[in-house]
Amino acid sequence: MLNKAVVLGATGGTGMVIIAELLKRGVETIAFGRSLPKLEQLAAKLGNPTGLRLKTGDVFKAGDVQEAAQGVDVIFHCASVPYHEMSTKLLPMGEAVLEAASKLGTRVAAVDGIYPYGKRRNEQPISEDYPKNPHTQKGKVKFEFERMFFSPRWNRAKRLIVRLPDYYGPTANEASYLGSTLEGIAAGKPAMFIGNMSVPREYVYLPDAAVMMVELAGREEAYGQNWNIPGAGIISGKEIVRIARAASGSSKPVIPVGAAGLSLLGLFIPVMKEIVEMLYLTKEPLILSGSKYERTVGPIPATPFEQGITETIRVLKARQDKSL
Predict the structure, then answer these.
(1) Selection from 63, 52, 6, 61 nearest residue 32 by Cα
(2) pLDDT tens-digit profile of 41-69?
(3) Distance CA 118, CA 286 (A)
(4) How far apart are CA 242 and CA 246, in angstroms?
(5) pTM of this prediction?
(6) Phi, psi at 132, each rounded to 5°
(7) Is the Cβ–Cβ distance between 52 and 26 less than 8 Å?
(8) Which residues of 44-53 are buried (b: 16+ CB within 10 A; e: fewer)?
(9) CA–CA distance, 42 with 136 (Å, rounded to integer)
(10) Taking 90 as the threshold, does the pLDDT of residue 288 lie above it?
């Protein structure tokens, strides 16, 4: 049961949808972030609901997190760091969050991805007990985060990790591979697509993911474990672009970008060259099994791609029109 929660990284793609889902359920919610103007923009987007409080602070400081999390049932750890800062910042940030949670004796639900699994080695889809054998630098850092997260050091805090595949939705931002693609199509501009456009891959619609994440966070039996958050199946980049163009009325080109293009872009945007080592997922994608979630909670919410992508384009176009 959830009565009160704090969401770290509140203005990020996952933070925003989790806040919306918590408020929908009548949960008193604290949005935590570094920038008050960004938090105020978030509150305005949500209609300045009475159940939402804003709290500024530094997620790298356990004292700030502890102060924001007083009296909450769950800390949602949605804060992230850019790819090119992951090796130096991911663990210190997680340790600060867990130090605060341990002192308070509260629960923590952390949002993470699939990189620790490494390359697929057998049939799809994979369950939570699939062996983790990361071969990329980011996968190794994320696996180290998991070991730290479940360490006995933080035994006063109950902990769970939810693992998402690539995601999309109206709140998805630069942390999502599809974010800039759909924004470009919505704006009627040429866009780029990261990786192979022909290989079908798994994507989760963020509002669906929020339902699953909040469901798990409210269940005592879900803690002490990893949980897969699967999408509504698989879809190719070509099909995504077809749906998005139909929704936007745009026919501008969408250019696939591989290792060479990302390395070139990385000269100007450091995060781009960091994506190169993750391109294996665009050629040999992992697909997550949701059977554990179904056994514990029930049916998986799975918005069809046609509906989810169309709604994402609609919201992005409305936002772009408003900013003009």
Answers:
(1) 6
(2) 999 999 999 999 999 999 999 999 999 99
(3) 9
(4) 6
(5) 0.95
(6) -90, 120
(7) no
(8) eebeeeebbe
(9) 34
(10) yes
- Report whether pLDDT(267) > 70: no
pLDDT value at residue 181: 93
**Residues 288, 302 contacting (CB under 8 angstroms):** no
What is d(CA 150, CA 113) in angstroms, rounded to the nearest whole number? 16
| Contacts for 26 with CB less than 8 Å, ≥ 6 apart | 51
Confidence of residue 174 (pLDDT cuts 50, 70, 90): low
Tens digit of pLDDT for each residue in 184-215? 999 999 999 988 899 999 999 999 999 999 99
Question: Hey, is 104 helix, strand or coil?
Answer: helix
| CA distances for 5 relative to 28, 173, 266, angstroms | 6, 23, 38
**DSSP alpha helices (H): ranges in the chain?**
13-24, 36-45, 62-68, 86-104, 137-149, 179-186, 206-217, 237-248, 259-265, 270-274, 280-283, 291-296, 305-323
* CA gap 219, 112 in Å, rounded: 19
Interatomic CA distance for residues 74 and 157, integer angstroms: 10
Determine the Cα–Cα distance for residues 311 and 186; give it in Å rounded to an integer: 11
